[in-house]
Structures are given as structure tokens and as C-alpha cells.
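Box 3.1 A note on notation
Throughout this textbook, protein chains are presented in two layers. The first layer is the amino acid sequence; the second is a C-alpha cell string describing backbone geometry. Keep the layers aligned when reading.
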Amino acid sequence: MRRFFAGAGWAATTALICTLFGEQAKAISSAVNLSTRMVVQTGDNVLIGGFIVYGSGQKKIAVRAMGPSLPVAGKLADPMVELHDATGAIVASNDNWRTAQQDLIIAAGLAPANDLESALITTINPGAYTVVVKGVNNATGVGLMEIYDLDPDGSPARLANISTRGNVLTGDNVMIGGFIVRGDVPKRTIVRARGPSLFLNGAPIAGRLMDPALELRDANGALIKANDNWRSDQQAEIAASSIAPTDDTEPAVVWTLTPGNYTTIVRGVNNTTGIALVEMYDLDQPPSADGSTLYVTEMRPQGAATSQGSGTATLRLAADGKSAVIAYTYSNLTGPITGLHVHAADGSIIFDVDSATPQPDGTLIWVFVPVGSFTVADILNMIKTGQTYLNVHTALYPAGEIKGFFNLSTGAQSAPIPTPPPALPAGTPTAAAAGRFLSQATFGATDALIAQVQSQGYDAFLNAQFAAPMSSHLAFVDAAVAALPSPSPSPSATPNQPTLTMTNDAWWTNAISGQDQVRQRVAFALSETLVASLNSAGLANRPFALPTYYDVLVRDAFSNYRQLLEDITLNPAMGAYLNMLQNDKANPARGTLPNENYARELMQLFSIGLYDLNLDGSLTLSSSGFPIATYDQNAILGTAAVLTGWTYAQPGSANPVFFPGAAAQSWRDPMINIASHHQTTAKSILNGVALPANQTAAQDLKTALDTIFNHPNVGPFICRQLIQRLVTSNPSPGYVYRVASVFNDNGQGVRGDLKAVVRAILMDYDARVGFVTVQGAGHEREPVIRVTNLLRAFNATSPSGKYSVRNAYANLDEEAMHSPTVFNFFGPDYAAPGAIAAAGLKSPEFEITTDTTVISASNYLRTAIYVYLGPGSDRITLNLTAEQTRASDPAGLVDHLNSVLMSGGMSSSMRNIMINAVTQIPSSNPLERARTAIYLVVNSPEFVVDK
């Protein structure tokens, strides 16, 4: 587990601190001890240290507060010390050390030199604690705080997360910290000082040190390493530690220290003063060494909140189940925050974040206590079963703007290389195997396609699909517009314009009858990651906007992901949806900055995600066992500046402008850049990559997209979601590893080859042979996929050949390009609370599976089976001729439906129920037999969950 150690101030007392530790070293048997020396003032500027006891059992510690014995001017004449628990209650305190525990303190070798100095020894349970050193009667002066671990090495309870906060002055009154590395081998550490990034309850701490500098010295006072701004030196090493400072002006040093005594000094640059925090982290600790369990959430808009806000939170549950450590971050909210809470699923507040005292590192300690009718056991069970969520309340959304349920997460500092799977079976695919393949690769199997796959084999079928002409959504809409009656010849007449219905018709028609089925299915999967929707920017009424956007996904479904990133970035519909369209450069006179929205989602949703990933899709954990953020606010700001100056293409205009009138705006063509609106200052983007000043917009964009595309997260992040959409919600680590490896290199040295990725997904052992009996196998068929499966399986037709499916979103809670937010209809990491969450499984589609949608979707499918879909003038009806022919044989009819709808996966018990149900209908009514059988199948759990 990560360990935080803190210290303060520097003068001629470096030797004193080392001597103090050296004299006491033989009396205590801990691996690392800590001291902090600085000026103790009053109020919030007393000397404050924080630490956490992790693990099981109890921890015996000693705490001292020194003053009169310090050989410095202005020393604190009468210090006192208090030890507080996570609730703020005083666990132990002492003013003059001889008044209590005198014999214990002497026996430990920790007797202070002056009777007015303080010391205490106590045994504490796992949890968070704070040490406060202050002057009696509010006296001030230089004081020294020391914390000792009195347990032998190897104790199951460990002291960790130690840091100190206080006021850094000048001269001898800067911040000085001493610590010992004890043992037989060197230890890799990082020491850092924080000032600008110090916040309390979301607000910056008043009087914080805005430009701290740091020195690391050995026992003789010799300088080992100094740093002012962390990016100026050791940037790669510091970033790799996963705990780089969040502000560029804060210092950090990574160093491997041999056993011995060390001192850290924090001062303000140019003798500035203010509140600072100094920390030391042990980078050699293994993840989860304390036996804790990590739960993670990504917060999204809550309920009906119309927000572009988002956030993340982690909850590390202690091994003894008595407490947890919580950390959170958020951005892009609509306004002031009015509250943060952890809730039970019923909405009850079970932990009030607002009233919790942040630790020096910003985390919160939640010590479980009964709340209302919930016992501690209840709270523990709710956490483990995914029934607790963190939400952020704002002035605009007092009930909550964003929220996310905590769910079990796994990871490692490096992913193991999986054992290669067995070879795929040779020979001709069975009808059941062909049907299963088609359920993953297309919008639904048909008898004809099953026979085709059996005849061609998987590879030949895929090759034919890769070569099939693209079905264009824009071309469909153009043809529909051209078929409209001519407009009135009056002077006020305008050319016919496309409608949203035409856009919807294009999607349904291509999904149901398009010959490029694999391309269309992959494009739909991509549309649920690279989301643009009619629910923002008025895109429902923008001529040709959404068909053009969707054609980008269709066209690039088999191209390179780098090309797709560029094409979607320059698409005007996406530009309008996420505010890159007419994103202007900074204007200091007006106090405006470039819009951050697309910059944020480009990284968060379209490429790398929020946390570093291993190649198998698991979280890459830091040395402390926590997730590692992929980017920070500086990367967002720099990328936002890159994405400035882009506006509508204006075909035929010799002098395009940044704000063209509506008549000149093209939604069909990629955006163009107006140089005078592009920010040409130097920029820092992802991974600290620096873009020089005075580059063109095209140069800036190329470097930014290249940098993002080459981040190691892109393969596992994107491939895992494609696997989820096509095959299974819970791909095995090996499955993700194998597909992401193909993303990284298609075998010919090419990165990002989507054609190779699609082939790898569909031809992987887990997809073709799979483990259908393994817990979490398969995925729920999305509502629209259930509809397309039904219409394709029974060769649905319409008089015009156009599939104008109406009212789909109202009944299914899903329809292409109708997502309520940029986060899609459901999140890839959603886990239904209860057994699914407790098992650490994901169930994305279940996020829109509610009591209401189960009924409405069932009724919608019944309408399609018993009546028709679409307008009365263009009815979409099923062709049930073949099914009626089979109806005289209930078993034969059921087996046929098993093949075309369920890939032969129907259980024997379901088959028996189906046969009995069909048999009860008179044989004289074959149509009713067919309809009833189909209705029962498409609403059965075994069909809805596609394995």
C-alpha cells in the first residue's frame, strides 16, 4: 500500500532531526519513522499530521511533540499533542509527558528532554487518524512532531498514508521533515510538496503556498536532489509513479534510497510563504498489500439532469470491513456544488461527504457506523453488491447532477500474458454455430445467411462482407429528398429539406436489409462509443447532419482507428454536439477560453478512458493499488486550445468566414479552419507533449490525434467495448488481450486496423467456441437488436422496400442517434445491483432494462408480430408462410425458431414449455400457432440474453 510520510522546515537543525531518529532507532522496530518541524501557530495553522492504519488487528504507536529542547530561536515553549480519529474525536492527548505513561515512554526510549514536552503511547484500530500539535494557551513557536510505529516488522496492521500540512515561512521557519529508511535493501520513493492544489471541500485553501520548492538531503545534510516544478526534471519517472503533482508548479523527486536517515525541506520560491503539504510515498509497496478491495464508479448525469458533467470516484474497502477510503473528482458541472453524499440504493444518505474531514492527501475516511435502519453489516453488503452510489448536488440540480454506483474493480501493476486458447474446430460450421456467428456479426440471422455461412465458412463470409459496397445513410436521405414533390414555385419557396424520419428510415432500412451487414453492425457499435445524438445542438433539424455523421462510422468501420478519430473530429454534427464547431481561441479581453467539451470526451470516451489500462483491459494500478488517471486538467486545456478555429465548410465560397449564415453552412462536408480563430500559443497536451507556438491548426490537430491514438490505452479501451457490443459483456482478460494485441499490430506492423480487429473479435476462440456456461457469458440483446433480429428472421417486407420503423425510442428506450447524453444509452461498466455487481460482472444493457421497458418492449414486439410496424401507408409485416407450414408439427416449429432466433441455444426445459404452449392452440389456426411461438421466444430470457 502507498505510504505517505511528511516533514517540515530546514535550518541548522538537519543534523538534530537525524540525531533524534538515530538515537531512538534501536528502541523501536518499525521500518520507517517520521518527524516534522515547523512554526506552530494558532487556528488552522497549527501543526497537523494525518495517517491511516491499514490491515487487520491493532497498531501500537507513539507520538511526541517537542519544543523547549529544540536548539532554535523562537521555539514553542509548551507544546501539547492530540490524536484524533476519523470522526474528529480525541483518542488520546498529552500536555506534559511525565503526567501519564512515564514508565512506558522511558521504556520505549522516547523520553523527551524537557518535562514540558508531550508524548503518548496508544494502541489503535485500523482507520484514519490525525495528530495535532499546538501551543498551550494558544502560544506559538517552532515545534517538532514525531510519529513512531512500535510494532515489529511484519505486523498485519501497518502505518501508511502519512503526510503533514502547515504554514511555510522563511529562514529557519521553512518546512523540515526527517525520516528513516530501515532494512537491508534500497527503497524507491517519491517525495512531493503541494501548495496550489490544496483544496478543502472543493474550494482552494486560503493562503496556500503558490510556488513551493523541495530539497531531499542525506544524514549529513548533503543535497541529493532538488526540484521546483516537477515537469522540469524526472518528468517521465514522476508520471510513471502514478502520483505526479496535479499542478505544474509543485515539486517532486523520485529517488532510490539506501537505508539511512534523510531530510526533506519545503520552502517558497523567492521567499514566498503559505500553507503547504509535504508527503513521502513508498513506491515499492505491492498493490492491495493491505488486503483491501477496490470499488470504482464513473459518475454520469443523474436522472433527468441535462448536464455535460462527469466524474470518477474510488472506494477502497478495508480488509476488516470496518472502514473505507474514498477519493473523487468531477468536472464540467453546471454551477456551484451544494452537496456530496454516498447513498444507499433507496436514496438514503449513509455517508455525508460534506461533513467529513479530508486527509492531507485529499482522501476521505469512512468509518462505518449504523445509519437509520441500516446496520454496519447492511452497509458492507450494499457496497459489495453495487447498491451504494456517490452523487454530486449542484444549485441547478439540488437532487443530484451526476451519480455513479460503486462496483468491484480489478487490476494489477502489469497484466499477465494469457495462455493461448485452443485452435478453432476445423470443418464446416453447423447451422447452430453459423447462427451464433451471425447473431454477433449482423443485425440478425436468416435461413439464407445461415446456409451461406455454412457453405462459405467464416473467413470467406467475412472477406465478402469486407468487400461489399457500403450502404450510405446520406445517399438514402438524398434519394428520399429527391423523391419529394417539387416545392411551390412561389418566390418564397425553398428546396425540399430532409426530415428526422428520413434519417431514422435510413438506419432501419440499412440495418434490416443492407447487404453490408457486418459493416452496419460495427458502425452501430461505434455509434455507442463515438456518440452524437439528436438530443443536443438541434441536430434533429439540421439538414443532412446526422446521416453524414453516421456515414463516417459506416465508411471507417473497416479502416484505421486513427482515420476514424480524425474524421469524427472534423464532422460538423459531432462539432455541434460537443462544442468544437466554432470553438474560438482564448480572448483575454473578454475573459474567455476555448471550450473544453470535445477535448474532454475525445480522451474520456473516444480513445483512452479515465484510467490507465493493462493490455487485458484491467486497470493498471499504482504502487498503492489505486487506479492511475490517464490525463489531467492541463491536458484538457491544451487539447481544447488545439481544437480552435474550426467551422462549417462553405462550398463555393472564395472567402469562408468563421460565422457563416445558415444558407452557407454545410453539414455534409468536414469542418474547415479559419486561421485567425485558431489559438497559436504553445500548448501542453496528453502525457505532457509540448506543441510549439505558431503551428497551423492542421499541424496542431495531427500531433494531438497522433499522441492520443498512440496511447497504450486505446487498444484495450476501444476493443473491450466492441467485444461487449458484438459478443459478450464480460470478455475474459485473455480475449481482450488478444484483440487489443491485434489493434496494436495487425501482423504487418500497422496499429489501429479496424478490419483486423473485427476479424479478431469474431474469430476468437471465446466468440466461436466460447464458454456459454461460464458465469457472465454473452450479453443482453439491445432492444433495437431484438427488433432487427425479429424482422430479419421472418423476412419482413414493406411495399416500398423502405423500413420506416416508428416510435421505437418511445417504446424501447433506445434508437440509433437518440442517446440522451454523450455517455450512450448505457455505460460499458454498468453492473446491475445485487448478484451481478457482487460477482464483479458487467451488464451494460440492463441499465435501460426497467419494469417499464420490459413491458413496453414486449408490447412493441407483439405489435410487430400480430399487426405491423411503420405507417399505415407503408406497413412492415412479417412473412410467416414457412412458419405456418411447420405449425402442424409443434416440435418442428419450435426447433425451427430455435435455429433462426436462438442459434440452437434453447434449453430442453424451454423447448418443452414451448411445444406444450403451441400444442394447446388448435391446429386449425396455424397463424396463431406461429405468432404465439415467435412471441414467446423473443420475450424469453434465453433469447434476450444472447450467448
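The radius of gyration is 32 Å. The mean pLDDT is 89.
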